[in-house]
Amino acid sequence: MKSKKSVSYQGHDSSLYAWNLCAGFPTKRKILPALLFCSLISGTTIVAAIPVDGLSYDSNIINFQQTITGTVSDELGPLPGATVQVKGTSVGVTTDFDGNYSIEADSDAILVVSYLGYATQEVAINGQQTLNVQLQPDATQLEDVVVVGYGTTAKKDVTGAISSVKAEEIENLPVANVEKALQGRMSGVQVVNNGGAPGGETKIRIRGTGTVNNSDPLYVVDGVPTSNINGLNQNNIASLEVLKDASASAIYGTRAANGVVIITTKKGTKGQKPSINLNAYTGFSNVRKTIDVLTAPQLAEIKIERSANDGADADAVWSDPQYLNQTTDWQDEIFETGYTNNADFSVTGAGENSSYLVGFGYYDEQGILSNSFANRLTFQLNTDTQVTDWLKINQNLSISRRKTNSPNTSSSQSGVIASALRFHPGLPVYLADGNYSTTQVSSEFGDINNPLHTINEDNDLRQANTRLLGNIQAEIKLYDGLSFKANFGLDGEISDRKRYYPQILDQTRNRGLSSLEREYSEFYSILQEYFLSYNKLFGDHSVGAVAGYTEQSFENQGFYAQANNINDSESEKILSNGDNDNATEFRSHDGLRSMFARVNYGYKNRYLLTATFRSDESSRFAEGNQRGNFPAFSAGWRISEESFFNVPLIDNLKISGGWGQLGNQNIDRLQYLATLTAGNRYSFGQDGQVQVEGISQSTYANPDVTWETVEMTNFGLETSLFDYRLTFNANYFIKNTEDMLLRLPAIGSQGTATAPFKNAGEVQNKGLELELGWNDQKGDFSYGVSANASFISNKVVSLLENQDYLTSDPFSRTGQELSRTYIGEPIATFYGYKSDGLFQSEAEVNAHALQEGAQPGDVRFQDLNNDGVIDDNDRMIIGSPHPDVTYGLNLDFGYKNFDLTAFFVGVGGVDIFNAEKTVGMNSSFNFNYHAEILDRWTGPGTSNSTPRVTFNDENNNFRTSDLFIESGDYFRLKNLTLGYTLPLDITEKYGIGKLRLYLSGQNVFTITGYSGFDPELGLTNGNLQQNVDTAQFPQSRTYLLGVNLTF
Amino acid sequence: MKNQYKYLVPFVVAICLVQSCDDEILETTPYGQYTSAEFWRNAEDAEAAANAMYQPLRWEDLYGHSENVFDNSSDDLFRAGDHGYETAMENFTFDASNNGFRYGWTAKYEMIARANAVLINVPNIEMDATLKNRILGEAHFIRAFAYWRFSVIYGSVPIVLEQNVIDNNFNIAKSSIEEVRSQVESDLLKAIDYLPESYSGDDIGRASQGTAYGLLAKLYLYEEDFAAAISAGEAIINGPYALAGNYRDNFEVASENNPEMLFAAQGLDGWADVPKTYDAPRPWGGWDFHNPVEDIVNEYETDDPRLGYSILRPGDMIERGGEFGTVEFTADLSQTGYSLTKYWSFNTDDGTINRDHNVPILRAADVYLIVAEAKIRQDGPGAGDSEINIVRNRVGLDPVSNAGMPELIHERRVELFGENQRHQDLMRWDKAGIVDIVSIYGEDRGQFDPPRTFEKPKHYYFPLPQSEIDKSEGILIQNEDY
């Protein structure tokens, strides 16, 4: 200990004056609120802090000083790194590895003992020389620690926008991936479910869709950055933080533009005795809703009317009695009761210097479509070892094996759900001879296959993934608050997709040759990082800094092979059994090399300042364009810490603001090179049997291509009231994406080679995010409410020169364009005609602008440009797939041993384009129709919205129009769980620490006006087409029974 | 605590190592792909690039299906199948956003892009001169062929040549039909210079001098330059391009690459299918497109074997093979009761559809009739008797004498039925005042060939795809009357 100065100042107001202690002499300086900010970064800061020089400060008289020693502990043992401070002074020390401290203080002073995550205690010295303090864990949000890039920080010191999810919120939800569990949990975080197929893909959008390109966030799992978290078991997650604004995420530079999701897996706790946890549940699921379709007699009636309307004779098949009996409800045939089983088993414990967690889990889901399933085996091993008092090593490892199989539901040509809606209801599943019924009997029945045939015979589409994600970290305490960390990570995945396509002779979509294809690929990424952290308290000043170097390589390689003529037996499904086998190998490399730094400064815990900088070099771009620099700044003011702030109701009030730049390099590789690709197969020769391949240009080049830049400004407000029972947080952000990569338009006259990307577009997302919570306890009854809502608006600011909009893939069944992305409008708005009811008479047709082919009973489209002709120029934006608001609402109740949780999610102000109806209601297709077609126009006044039935459909009634725009608003009870924990005195008899049984329901009910299967639809052409209903795999309703057991 | 620093040594060493050798992390090898800078090295590259020019021919967007949809507008075929958009194409009630006008557009420009790439790069490759000439000749032919198809479908289109590729300038205005035809002519003349007269062995099926002469004859006939058409066509008549012994040889897998076959989209089952097997009846594994109508069936003379070689009629017995044995074609197997049978057959070992069939695009018989027509229109009836009679003789029909345009029109219709000629022929003859297409298409021939309104001159050309007009931002102008 160095010598100590003692100063006093009479009659001051500590909130208005501060002592410049660093300079070593007292000065009086008025503080301009909000000019000085304070920040103290991480939990490690405090852990690493060592006894500091300081000043004892007393406002009255200088008293007798003495040295007080003692131990700070919690119920499990000593707490290293706890802060012991003399109240009213800036004198403070932290406890050493054994929880011991030694501090000099006046004999009548009061010690303030604090540690993150524990309730702060004040202990009067009263002349004692030894003071041992036991801290109690404190669950108030304010003391929570949040994990940020390359460190942790106390929630109260955060100046950026970070949302957190705790383990208990996502544990034991019956979902196959972590992303699904996050839906509605946080403001500003939208979860986009691409259908409900077991193991199906889920996307996360943080603060809106920032770009028309890949807008998936970066994930960082225990310090390892990765592009996805497939295979991670949500029951192994301790906490999940979403870094939403630039200040929080800029430390990840060129991968941070779409936000960063930081995941920390569970660890053993120091001093904990070994315990075994078992979580298991089993349940079943059903389809939530089906769509009414015509019966066989109704269908025949409609078809006959259709021909009559077209002045043609109906095909004889419609009066053939064998097809007139209602025989099969195809939706009933394809949907079945699914089931979900999950078992997680983990052991945690700790020795004197180390702790561990070993976890093992198995999840198994059988989907609501026959023969669809997903299962996942996970293994987790995390250890933490304090090797010496200055060296700590920790290691995390998760291994998973996933298998999925699901029939195609995305194709509008052959998707199995669409086929079930369209297959002739008068055909049986099986014919008398045991074969599947088929539409080959008549082209009047359309070009679709028997859906049961597809599900049972043409559905060997298996995929298996084996993933390993792990790292080892060493932390060395160097000197007085300074530590060095090295982090080595490995992210690897083997993906094996094997698809068998049998020969199909008796279905319309036939296949002359059976074939087997296999794609086997290996991905691995190696990470190495070295960084220094410095954290120190200088009296009222806290300084934190982190700076380092990181590099990560990404290698992907594998092969694709295909062979024909392979028998449909498991033992024979081997590529080498086939003919014409061909194979291609692929390989790619990406690399990223970066330097990063962050400085935090805090003054008196009131004024907080953070500055971040990252410099990345990326192999995605040509030499000379590889380096990107990403700065960010933010500041916070904890008004509630000011002495002038005297509002008893308010426990915490903080405002913050920040600005920064981020990058997005998620684009196709090698855009700066024009590439040629082999494989254009053709044949020559006398007998036409000479196989040749051609090589042709597949991409055009843009040597100047570089990353997209996001510039984000954030304003935050954080409050706690009524003894922390009420919390309210609000954030407002403006997120501008600049240099958005756009493909030059694929003009037909260029051919089919892909045009390159060019940095040209701008997109703006603006939004307000609100989070509100209330927790209280009355005797045995405790309850909590938390709600969040996000209001995000999306707008395209500019596109390529001379470009007004981007188009999207046409809906393949009808060839209709559905969505366009216009300047000044949100991404992927629906674009089409405005309808104006139906023509009721010839006179109405004649009175209207010239609409080629229109007859009474056809849709009247509005002449928007008033040129007297209805043509392509009469289209406009007819809807937006972006909700005005997305929200989540969680209600918790606890009474004695019962607990009840109800979790709701919803969206408002969103449109869906029901493309399914443009086929399902469209009599120019030779299919079965939705029952709604019974409301068709059959004469003046019979309908003003469902057009007459016609095969010729010369009016093109089912062109993209507002007739198919529906509100996609929904309010869904996403999860309802009722639990009962057996009384401890009973379970203890059996050596059980905790035994809880629960009943849970997922997607219990949905309030929506939407007429399709499910209002959650996802993306159908990247970000350029969203919320289009193509009869995707719907979300199921699941009920389950579970048990949590701890020994 | 001081001794801890010695543990830093390995980390410092590690960092130094990393820093010194990690430029590899930013390397950007395009594994498995060629870059334009490193391709075009040798004859092998040139040949691979040449092979690629042919490949789009077999796409569904071209001769796999969509290119022949344009002939549904003729009076030979009912579209059948189940592509809704083809209704409007057949009935002349389409607008420019109809899918049918979009499908082949980019595919033909892709053929042009591949030909342009060859024409830009192959001249600089040091390689065998004969092979180099052949490849350049193929490129000129392929480009000519694509523009030829553009000229008959849309009339006037943008002409993308080597310089557009070099300047990366593709969004350009369309050229007139005369300019497009003139581009076809100049490319065909160069192709004739460069290409070998014919091929043997593994190269059969490539464009030859005969392919170029044949197309040139057709171009001149469309331009009504009869002397030039005759002269170009006589290169076929006098060259090694004899008609196949049997008419049906042209549509059988084993014999389709015979000398008569000047150009075809080549298919090879399992390696490179041409999905034109669409046409087969559905219960037999096809999708029942392009049904012949009653009127074409009646057009054939009694005893003309070409009817049986081209069209299945109720009562026809076919060897299907496998478990099916011999099967009977019945009226309910197609919508009109007839089925076009030129582009598919059965694998008789298992009764599946054989996808090995080629789609003939240009046959010597077509050129014989081109020469005959040119001679009749230049010199009057009887001038084309010899060429017409060679075609008739092959199928055992009596010769005609003093044949005029009616006989020629009949012969073309039955000889080339289903080969994507009839609608174009009728429009050509209508423009020349030889037939009245409005009354032919206006005739009521029943459910599958109802009266259709052909508007002149609007329907002489189909509209450019609306999507391309939109993308061009005002540079591409729609055809008149659309």
UniProtKB/TrEMBL annotation, chain A:
Pfam families: CarbopepD_reg_2, Plug, TonB_dep_Rec_b-barrel. NCBIfam families: OMP_RagA_SusC, SusC_RagA_signa. The chain crosses the membrane at residues 31-52. It is found in: Cell outer membrane. The keyword Transport applies. It is a multi-pass membrane protein. Keywords: Cell outer membrane, Membrane, Receptor, TonB box, Transmembrane, Transmembrane beta strand, Transmembrane helix, Transport. This is TonB-dependent receptor. Coiled coil: none annotated. Its main location: membrane. The keyword Amino-acid biosynthesis does not apply. Residues 155-260 form the TonB-dependent receptor plug domain. It comes from Euzebyella marina. Belongs to the TonB-dependent receptor family. Residues 449-1004 form the TonB-dependent receptor-like beta-barrel domain. One of its GO terms (cellular component) is cell outer membrane.
UniProtKB/TrEMBL annotation, chain B:
The keyword Membrane applies. Gene3D superfamilies: 1.25.40.390. Residues 65-221 form the SusD-like N-terminal domain. It comes from the Bacteria. Its main location: membrane. One of its GO terms (cellular component) is cell outer membrane. Residues 288-482 form the RagB/SusD domain. Keywords: Cell outer membrane, Membrane, Signal. SUPFAM superfamilies: TPR-like (SSF48452). It is found in: Cell outer membrane. InterPro entries: SusD-like_N, SusD_RagB_dom, TPR-like_helical_dom_sf. It holds the Pfam family SusD_RagB. Belongs to the SusD family. This is RagB/SusD family nutrient uptake outer membrane protein.
